[in-house]
Amino acid sequence: MNILFYTDPHICLSSITECELVFDEIIELVEKYKISKVISLGDNFDTTKPSAAELNCLAKFLKKLNNKEVILLAATSHESETNILSSVDVYGILSDTITIVKEYHDAGKLYCGHFIINESKANKGSLSGTKSKKELQNYKFVVLGHGHNFEIIKPNVCQLGSCRYISFGEDENIKKRVGIVTDYGEDKERWGFIELKTPYPIVNIEVSNTVPTNLPKSALQSTNSVKTDDVTVDTTDPKSSISQAQTSQNSAQIQALCEKLDKLTPLTKVRIIFKDYVLWRSFLPFYQKYKEKFIIFKDKKDFIIEDKIVAQGKSDTQTVVESLKKYLIANKVEQKIQDILLKELK
Fold first, then answer.
1. What DSSP state is assigned to residue 277?
2. Is residue 127 very low, low, confident or very high in pLDDT (cuts 50, 70, 90)?
3. Hey, is 246 helix, strand or coil?
């Protein structure tokens, strides 16, 4: 018997197209490796009450498996309304080939569950561990869902990792995989992992006030402005204490960032981490352009406003909003774009 394992697609309305691509690739692997059993390690859905479109996405995948044996783990994290009821129960009711379980055991050979093991690197915060590998030492193989990064924990545990990138906290350098075991339970049994080609890539780009050493000469500007299709942004603020050299440096940084973004496929999930307020402010006129280009585009403001401003009784967020309003008005940015940018701060 050959078995395929996958986990954590987190089907949601915004990801249905990507999930369908990933599921179709899994179907191809099922056919190629003559898989007779498919085990889902949980979190097929991102909510306990999936919509009709989300339910249909998983239903189409299960139908394409053509009555092969399927084990669906009903994860407590996203799919279970109670200890008994879950959003995947309906599939077990409608098909004799689909079994719904909370965890899967096969004698002393195989254990499948949906949790972070204590010894995992991901054992922290909301992904705290629930069992130790000592508790599972009697199994030959342990395959777990819930943790989104692939990880082998010797001697017998695998955190398989999500079959697509779900959040920006995941390591973009760790490829998404499915697990496969051929000739399960026989002398020639073999285990392996196959990297998936269809998940949309994810990228975190950190922008600080240090000029990159690999910045091409063409990215350096002698002017103090950055021009978009409709807006010219003056990066020289007469009220700012930033030096002329710093202003030129900021312009170079923003141009280098835009050049990097232009090279990425529109299917990339992008998050920019700004370490400097002035750089974040200088990028704002470009924000809508890239939000429209990429399937997901977000920014993270990892900087602190000057203490003397905060000391006046205003929070960091309030100060940023007020500064942004003044900046957009001064540069005559269209009201529609102003509304979009200000909404991102709420």
1. H
2. confident
3. helix
Residue 112, C-beta contacts closer than 8 angstroms, at least 6 positions apart: 5, 39, 41, 71, 73, 103, 104, 142, 143, 144, 145
pLDDT at 234 > cutoff 80? no
Q: How many domains does the chain have?
A: 2
Q: What is the sign, positive or negative, of the torsion defined by CA atoms of 278, 282, 283, 288?
A: positive
**CATH number of the domain that residue 175 is part of:** 3.60.21.10
> What is the pLDDT, as a whole number, of residue 346?
58
Count of CB atoms situated within 10 Å of the CB of 89: 16
Considering the domain architecture, whether residues 170 and 266 belong to the same structural domain is answered as: no
Domain boundary pick from 195, 210, 243 = 195
Choose the final residue of a domain: 131, 165, 195: 195
pLDDT beyond 50 at 340: yes
pLDDT tens profile 7-65 = 999 999 999 999 999 999 999 999 999 999 999 999 999 988 999 999 999 999 999 99
**Pairing relationship of beta strands 269-274 and 296-301 according to DSSP bridges:** parallel
The label of the residue with tokens 């972070």 reads 116
Q: What is the domain extent for residue 84?
A: 3-195
Tell me, yes or no, whether 230 and 292 share the same domain: yes
Q: Is the pLDDT of residue 223 over 50?
A: no
Residue written as tokens 């490829």?
Answer: 175
If DSSP codes are grouped into helix, strand and coil, which group holds residue 149?
coil
Q: Is 177 helix (H, G, I), strand (E, B) or coil?
A: strand
Asked if 236 and 177 sit in the same domain, the reply is: no
- Residue with token string 């399937």: 295
H or E element at residue 319:
helix 316-330
Please indicate, yes or no, whether residues 215 and 330 belong to a single structural domain of this protein: yes
